[in-house]
């Protein structure tokens, strides 16, 4: 997903997708350990997607803090 697409999601949807991505990363790591993973680039892609989700969530948290003060 592109950052512009992620920003259109609500905070709850974003948190749900973050949990899904973390679960997928865990599954990919398990597959890597057992030798079942053929496309190792998915590990990096999933980690970057998690970082995007966390970054946008943090941006929203900071915006709320600035708005309240």
Automatic annotation (TrEMBL):
Keywords: Ribonucleoprotein, Ribosomal protein. One of its GO terms (cellular component) is cytosolic large ribosomal subunit. It comes from the Bacteria. One of its GO terms (molecular function) is structural constituent of ribosome. One of its GO terms (biological process) is translation. PANTHER family: 60S RIBOSOMAL PROTEIN L35/50S RIBOSOMAL PROTEIN L29, LARGE RIBOSOMAL SUBUNIT PROTEIN UL29C. Belongs to the universal ribosomal protein uL29 family. NCBIfam families: L29. This is Large ribosomal subunit protein uL29. The gene is rpmC.
């Amino acid at each position: 997903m592109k950052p512009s697409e992620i920003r259109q999601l609500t905070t709850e949807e974003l948190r749900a997708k973050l949990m899904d991505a973390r679960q997928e990363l865990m599954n990919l790591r398990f597959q890597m350990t057992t030798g079942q993973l053929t496309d190792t680039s998915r590990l990096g892609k999933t980690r970057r997607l998690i970082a995007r989700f966390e970054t946008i969530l943090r941006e929203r948290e900071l915006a709320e803090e600035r708005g309240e003060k």
